[in-house]
């Protein structure tokens, strides 16, 4: 039972009135509410802990729950208290807000729980004091990122009916969704690696023939390398075109970084094909080949770590900018100083300020090649100051970048762990849900027993069977009404499978139903116009004669079969209920008469007399009460 | 050198608020609504103070912000029907409760509708039900609307039913309904036809009184 929303049960039951005109059968009786529950209310009694404060304190903020008339909804007149069923610990900070005017965020509190409390009491989080606001914002951001991760997960596993294009796009973006996507992923990865290695090996000298000087492999085996290059570029081109085709927004795809990298990676090849062996442009062509190295960036689709690195750099853009800016300033300052310090010395390498840039950079990054060295004393002094400050300037922004990277990396790891645990979580949730639906089926069996006992008026059993709470019985009554409206019952999975196998038989052979009643099947438990459809072409004469036995209902358009038990719930229960229902066959809930003529039409005369028919029916099957009635 | 670094750090700090602006914008969209006073609601509905208190507490617990949007509504309603899919019927219910078509249900709407359903006269209840069935609010219930409603009700049963649900079960149910309700056989059911037909049927009349003592 959904006890969390127990307070909404009256609403759900009231909404059931919407089913009433649609239903064809009468509804079951509602459970009686014998005891009226009284709630105890105490002034600012929050889950048992009493808080006392002046009314004027609360009135300071009239646009919140405690400061406005809304708290009257929570007032209890008998005990003269306001009762709130909320967390007392979180309430402390809420009440302190009224007292001191400052809202604080307790660090031990979960961010979503705290947000809920604030929303309940009508306080906007922006009022959180400066002392706690940073912490609040940080936790909130983490929570939002976690929620977005969860949402992305849900996006992966939806859309059963996507068209081909969308399936392809999903396969490209998430290779683990299908085997084809995984194969494609690995194949492209392999070819990227091949292409990069080819580019590298091309330049290695492999001169094995002694008469020729050392040539790079690229010029010795031109054809082979050309073929490999062609193959790789073809694969990349096909991949790019497929992605372009599958992308939901082609314009946005073309603008994205990965697609630009793809284009840049394959363009040199095509340009090379187009260009002739012209001496002037071949120089430019060689430069273009440099761009082939961009193919290595295509690996970022395959490696999550690379993506995280890229994302980190993007998110630390301000820190990186700061680093660059400060370095530039320092370089200019020190280059100028070194130039003027070394101006005096002869054969100095520091020919100009831009020439000193190289020395400054090499010194500040503690490389120290030694190709440019100061010779004057002043130059050496300033050179040492330069290298010391270089260490400081570089060391400052790096930890910020590192901490950002670490945070994002850990978040990703947590997301992966959550994904792995999700299946187990969902399985457990499903089991819990099944528990609640099984509860209804279980209580139906018990409930019918107690209904019978209700009518036979045996007092002691009545109390024994009322072990389910009033809330549960009301919820089950609601589900029972739904069953009556739709004229179908809830069953559990195994019985459903069983009935599927045997299901079609009764409908096709109504004449044999009288004999097959003991093995029941389709006759019991339906209260539906579907059966009436089969009956309408019946010879009206035989049926109209049965009308005299009914309660005077004129129109025949449906057969109502009331079940006295749940034959679908297993034969063991059936036998026990058989005994009980045979007693009550004369006096069932609605007091309808039993007319059994309809059951087997080819031989109506045998079924005309009600009284003679009743006992056979109740003993062969499980007390089916058949009634003819108008719709 | 230190002064240089200091000025640069101040510069980066100023750039921070712009990044948080997006978060701030999202936060402002949280809507908070407070209902009218207890006395007014007591006068407008058929509930007494204590009942309104109980209802409000339940309402506020599920929706601290004071309004129910359709998602929350569907979630709450689905918890009562774990077997099947209650979201379709919850959608129609939501539209019936949300008389102002604002996209969210406030406590006043909620209590007004409950007052009709639990404490109203038979005619009021039937009128409310007619409004529920009349999806496009044109004053007529046609077969498509009724089929939608009945299919939604059948969806709540879920897959495992006895006897097994067939695809044309809702349609046949709708046919039977129209047989009963559509007096002049013009293919639509008007409010008067509906009320008249329901008043003629004892079962319906009796079942309407079923939830009198819910509160």
From TrEMBL, chain B:
SUPFAM superfamilies: EF-hand. It holds the Pfam family EF-hand_7. Residues 1-20 are annotated as: Disordered. Transmembrane segments: none annotated. Its main location: membrane. One of its GO terms (cellular component) is voltage-gated potassium channel complex. It is found in: Cell membrane. GO terms for molecular function: calcium ion binding; potassium channel activity; potassium channel regulator activity; transmembrane transporter binding. GO terms for biological process: regulation of potassium ion transmembrane transport. Keywords: Calcium, Cell membrane, Ion channel, Ion transport, Membrane, Metal-binding, Potassium, Potassium channel, Potassium transport, Repeat, Transport, Voltage-gated channel. InterPro entries: EF-hand-dom_pair, EF_Hand_1_Ca_BS, EF_hand_dom, Recoverin. Residues 85-120, 121-156, 169-204 form the EF-hand domain. Belongs to the recoverin family. This is EF-hand domain-containing protein. It comes from Electrophorus electricus. The lineage of its organism: Eukaryota, Metazoa, Chordata, Craniata, Vertebrata.
